[in-house]
Amino acid sequence: GGGSFDAKYHTKVTVLGSAAVGKTCLVRQLCFKKYQETYKVTLGADFGACLAHLDGTVCHVQIWDTAGHERFNSMGPAFYRGSQACILVYDVTSPKSFEDLREWKESFEEQADIAEDEDFPFIVVGNKCDLPKEDQLVPEAKAARWARENGCAAHFLCSAKEMTNVHAMLLDVVRLVLKRLKARE
Ligand code: GDP
Ligand code: MG
């Protein structure tokens, strides 16, 4: 079966980023294998779950998606509580959404109370990499450098639309989380 009871490990992952970068599409692809072409604002905190299989270990991943009109610090504490990784999403065609990552990361650090936690897993995702190269206004090298210099574990270019790199990204998130969980066992 595919129930959460099959999993030895459970984790909560929070997805942050400005409006329309494709957070909800990423989460729906991972959890429900669906892609939504028409834009719908997510109302209320939204979450999905999926099972990730990594080197013979099954991990049940609960993925929390931002609610409604994305504003910094607008989500309540329950949204952040217990998160074991944070996926920071920007749109490769929107430099503004990339610049916003700094504030999303800072607000997560404040709200999730992880100031003392130096290797907390942050993963940076440049979504919509299916769009034409000439429209991709955020250089990959610049984003990768920002991720490195700001203590993020990895940077991925993904397409929720075409499912490019989406599973690979999640597996990396789970790998980072499991490494920390197993170190504490
Ligand atoms: P959110 O506000 O961050 O949750 O963004 P959504 O997931 O609702 O997506 C916003 C818009 O971007 C929608 O019209 C999606 O169809 C579109 N979108 C999401 N992911 C992709 C992608 O990978 N490629 C392209 N071309 N469009 C995408
Ligand atoms: Mg959304």
From TrEMBL:
Domain of life the protein comes from = Eukaryota
Q: Does the keyword Transmembrane helix apply?
A: no
GO CC, any one term: vacuolar membrane
Keyword list (alphabetical) reads: GTP-binding, Nucleotide-binding
Provide the GO MF annotations for this entry: GTP binding; GTPase activity
According to its UniProt record, which protein family does this protein belong to? Belongs to the small GTPase superfamily. Rab family.
What is this protein identified as?
Ras-related protein Rab-7
